[in-house]
Design brief:
Double Stranded RNA Binding Domain, single chain, 4 strands, elongated, alpha+beta
Length: 111
């Protein structure tokens, strides 16, 4: 899993980086086929914003959250991302090998 962490109008301290990494470990525990994660932390006046884009095979999942505290915004963003990853995982498991079925149907000779 590649992690790209950037900040707009906020410096990324080792404490913030560690907090983000600890929250993203939950995602890796639930779904291990994550290719890339981009996290952007920004400050707009009194609002702290955390947004993340997770690239998994075939789809990009985007979540964002705002709060007055940056750490709370990161926590809420991670919780929302975790729910989205679990929802995607359930959708993938609900239709197993659908492409293999289509390939078999296409290769079977018609009578």
């Amino acid at each position: 899993m590649n992690l790209n962490l950037s900040g707009h109008h906020v410096s990324i301290t080792p404490a913030i980086r560690g907090h983000v990494l600890s929250k993203l470990e939950r995602i890796r525990r639930h779904f291990e086929h994550v290719i890339d994660v981009k996290v952007i932390l920004s400050v707009e006046k009194l609002r702290q914003k955390a947004e993340a884009t997770v690239h998994v095979s075939g789809k990009d999942i985007f979540v964002e959250n705002e709060d007055e505290n940056l750490y709370v915004a990161i926590d809420l963003m991670a919780a929302k991302l975790d729910r989205s990853i679990l929802k995607y995982k359930d959708k993938v498991r609900a239709h197993p090998h659908e492409t293999l079925r289509r390939q078999q149907e296409a290769t079977e000779p018609e009578e």
